[in-house]
Design goal:
388 residues; alpha+beta; 2 domains; 6-stranded mixed β-barrel; 13 helices; 18% strand; elongated; ABC-4/HrtB_transporter; FtsX-like permease family protein; cell membrane
């Protein structure tokens, strides 16, 4: 497409490549703007992915949640009796429970304290589907035994290597002794430095203020022939308004909405993306405006020869399009490397996606076209009689 455009209108390409220094400055500015947008969007997506990683692993079709709960880290419990109310409802095959809470983990090496997210359930009836943890759930049947997230931040201690030399590792959680009996992978988030899996019995010992009949998430599995929408409506009719009945996607969307709308994360990263867009727009505008100003006599000559304003405006917009494509390429390449460095340093799930690549490319094109549209006002106002 670009080659066809250049063959039809070589003036735009010749204008762009004529001033090598100016071209380099323009491409550097566009690449910088793209990197800034990729950086902000990538971190925001990583925050959402980290916050919802546990949601995708929940076993069930519908989920009960306290209506006052905002997100997984500040979740509020509700009475287990709500599950008993729906256990015989038409379409419900089974029910399950999940406990969760933020606990204080003490690094076994240097005794420093860190925040971890603990998840607990009945090991004989697991509430989570984590491939590398599932074969080890039997270990959780022993009181005070837990599994440790191998992707936790290194500040929590070198647990993985220590487990290679011993079947279990003693550690402290909420100032209580626990035994780490295995490893799994889930991933850290902005709210916690790591994760632990344990039985509900061990959880209630580590969190002595929690009552057994106060659960955090109720998991409902439906019969094979049941309609998700119909059963959801049926359960909502049975239960009072203090409990929400959500599908997995609704639960995930609720979590993302909390971090995107109610916390500074969404505002900060969104604002950073806008700043990147504006920076790129200003840089491209200055380049194109300077180019139009420097070649105003030549443009006036073309107008005197009969070329319309529409044609000349098209040349400027084509320059903007060319700059957008050429500037996007290094911006994308550098962002790929930057994502790798960020993922390694923060252990957050930062990775490039096709949707984000397309979005930034579209924003780059819009950024350059808008800049060209502003810059061409000087061109449209040019009168050959005034110039010569």
């Amino acid at each position: 497409m670009l080659g066809k455009l250049l063959r039809k209108t070589p003036i735009a390409w010749l204008q762009v490549k004529r001033e090598k220094t100016r071209l380099l400055v323009a491409l550097s500015g566009i690449a910088f703007a793209d990197i800034l947008m990729f950086f902000q969007l990538g971190l925001m997506a990583a925050a959402f992915d980290a916050a919802t990683s546990i949601h995708y692993r929940l076993r069930g079709d519908l989920f009960l949640l306290n209506a006052l709960s905002d997100n997984m880290q500040t979740i509020k419990p509700f009475s287990r009796s709500r599950l008993f109310q729906i256990s015989e409802a038409n379409g419900v095959a089974s029910i399950n429970t999940l406990y969760t809470g933020i606990a204080t983990w003490r690094n076994p090496d240097n005794r420093t304290s860190w925040q971890v997210q603990a998840y607990a359930f009945n090991p004989s009836h697991p509430a989570l589907d984590i491939p590398d943890a599932s074969p080890q759930f039997n270990k959780l049947k022993l009181l005070n035994y837990a599994l440790y997230d191998r992707t936790a931040r290194p500040t929590l201690g070198n647990v993985g290597s220590q487990l290679q030399h011993a079947p279990v590792l003693s550690a402290q959680l909420n100032d209580r002794q626990i035994q780490i009996a295995g490893l799994f992978a889930l991933g850290v988030s902005f709210a916690s430095d790591g994760n632990l899996l344990m039985s509900d019995s061990s959880f209630l010992r580590v969190f002595p203020n929690r009552q057994p009949d106060q659960i955090d998430i109720g998991l409902v599995s439906l019969a094979a022939d049941a309609s998700l929408e119909q059963v959801q409506a049926r359960l909502r009719a049975i239960l009072p308004n203090d409990v929400l009945v959500l599908t997995k996607q609704e639960l995930i969307d609720r979590e993302k909405a909390y971090w995107g709308q109610n916390r500074p994360i969404g505002v900060i990263f969104g604002f950073g993306t806008i700043v990147g867009f504006l920076v790129g727009t200003v840089i491209v505008y200055q380049i194109l405006y300077s180019d139009v100003s420097d070649h105003l006599p030549e443009y006036a000559t073309l107008k005197a020869m009969g070329y319309s304003d529409r044609y000349l405006v098209g040349v400027v917009l084509q320059e903007a399009f060319i700059l957008a494509i050429l500037g996007f390429i290094p911006g994308f390449a550098i962002s790929l490397g930057l994502y790798g460095l960020i993922a390694q340093a923060t252990l957050l799930p930062v990775h490039m996606t096709l949707n984000r690549t397309t979005l930034v490319l579209m924003m780059t094109l819009v950024m350059c076209v808008v800049s060209g549209a502003i810059a061409m006002r000087k061109l449209q106002a040019a009168d050959p009689a005034d110039i010569f």
